Amino acid sequence: MTVLLAVLLAFETHLAPDGQIQRWSFAGDGLVTLRLIDPPAGLRLKPGGDLRAALTMAAQAWQAVESAHVPVRYLGTVHARDPLAGEVLVRFETGSEFPGGRDAAGSTKLFVSGHSITAALVHLNAADFDWATDGSTTALDVQSLVEHEMGHALGLAHPCGDLDTQTPSCATLPSATLQALQQDVMYPSIAPGPRRTPSQDDRDGITFLLPAASPPEIAPELTGLTPPCLEEAQEIGPGLARSLIVEVGRAPDPAVLELLSADTLVAQASLGRDDKGRLLAAVPATALHSIRPLDARLVAQSGKANVLFAALDVAKSCTRHGCSSTSPSVLALLSLALLALRNSKSAPRRRGGRGGFFSKKIFSPRSPRLRGALVALTFITALPAQAYKRSVNAGGVCVWWSTRGHPFQIDSQGTPDVPAAQAFTAIRKSFQTWADVSCSDLAFPDQGLSMDPKDRVVGYFPGQYNRNLVLFRT
Ligand SMILES: [Zn+2]
Description:
CATH class of the largest domain: Alpha Beta
Number of strands: 22
Bound molecules: zinc ion
Number of domains: 3
Order of helices and strands: EHEEHEEEEEEHHEHEEEEEEEEHEHEHEE
Largest sheet: 8 strands, antiparallel
Radius of gyration: 29 Å
Shape: elongated
Strand content: 25-35%
Number of helices: 8
CATH superfamily of the largest domain: Collagenase (Catalytic Domain)
CATH architecture of the largest domain: 3-Layer(aba) Sandwich
């Protein structure tokens, strides 16, 4: 299926009446700000679709052209209205309001002043088409269409088939030329599925319209913040600010780090470098007041910016991002822990006295279960680090510890298979291995040996004193 991207107003206003080129004017704050009008209930978006990510990526695709000056911001959703100066609004139409016709997927109205495009309103046809953001080839790709319509807003017309620009009909072009132009984001028709990468022709066009003052104008590449939990960051003056390491790919001219909640700015962090050349951000303590993870936006001197969603946890009990590691020792513990967990389900449960929970069975070298663990270890270490699986309950919901700090005791009886001191040392090292994971706040205070034989029980006993106990099945 191929559908037209009829953008009558876009290509009609591509040239001013005097024949001069029209281009984005950077009215307002000198940026291209992109907002989404609240999506209608009737929008048929493939499940799991992420409009916010799609629009952000669409804007950043144009920004990534280093020979051009296109600093972008995606600033969230708004109620239906006309665009402000410097703004591109995207609106899904499910009714008869779509101005482009039943075969068209997108249509952009430009707001112009002389030779300057000051704002744009992008209409997307949600009455006649299904939409997706995951690259599906059975629905129109939101990012690809928004990219195309943003191209119109910036001043680009179709490379062929526009009457007002006197370009030839696409159908009359030599096949080689046609095939080349069909790679353009600005080609006038699109099939379902993604076409997200601006071609060299697109790049030449945007560079001609909006050249960078001193190319290359590199968009920042923000890859992470360390630590990912603000409470864990080092304080700079008690109660004033905290210091984070800003992990970047390319960011030669960083200016400021912005922290956002629901696309609204909640804090700005000044930047500096430490003696190792690492980029540091001083985050005001006011950012701690947020109750949910913050997005981070690294802004360059040029105005180009890069957003990383949910980059920083701030709530009192930071949820973990999960630390990937290629360390075989960590993976080995993971496989052993999971195996022990499975075995503990069949462990006899006895009531009475002080109960133990989180009991880990340590198997003797003769145990066939240890051989099973080694097989599992071999398998798991052969996989990439992201192959980890979360533990789930009977309903398939992920389970996790709701608190931090897990003290443990070791049953003093030990095992007849290994000298006691050797066994206890090995157990303590096991906990320490997890505690040493650098991007985690895991801690396992050692409460010493459990001396009372009555405490050798497995289970969780509500209302009673429960402990984490390591004991051997002897
Ligand atoms: Zn178009």
